[in-house]
Amino acid sequence: MADHSEAPVTPVEAFEPPYYVAVFTTVRTQDQSGYSETAARMEDLVKDVPGFLGMDHAQTPGGLGITVGYFRDAEALTEWRADPEHRAAQQRGQAQWYETYTLHVAKVERSSGFTRAQRPGPC
Description:
Keywords: Monooxygenase, Oxidoreductase. The chain has helices at 35-46, 74-82, 84-97, and strands at 19-28, 52-59, 64-71, 98-108.
């Protein structure tokens, strides 16, 4: 969605299950006019949904985009899906921005993470 090239690269933390994920995988069209502004607005808007936990993004050099949204419960995911601005962005995406996309929604039953500890520098 938004460009975070200056932000540190870290995945969304592992949460205590159960929670839900929405995995949105896309290939975009050549016409991307208005996309970045709308994507930034959607990223700001979803943060206001009670139960929204975070979002990860990845883009391959070949053009495959993956966005994973994390939600505490099904109600939070339903609220996001029903948001009028989000619905309008979905319609514009189908009409203009996406060549193809898939959406997978899943209930997470197990979650874990790892972060390398910082080693102290030389004294």
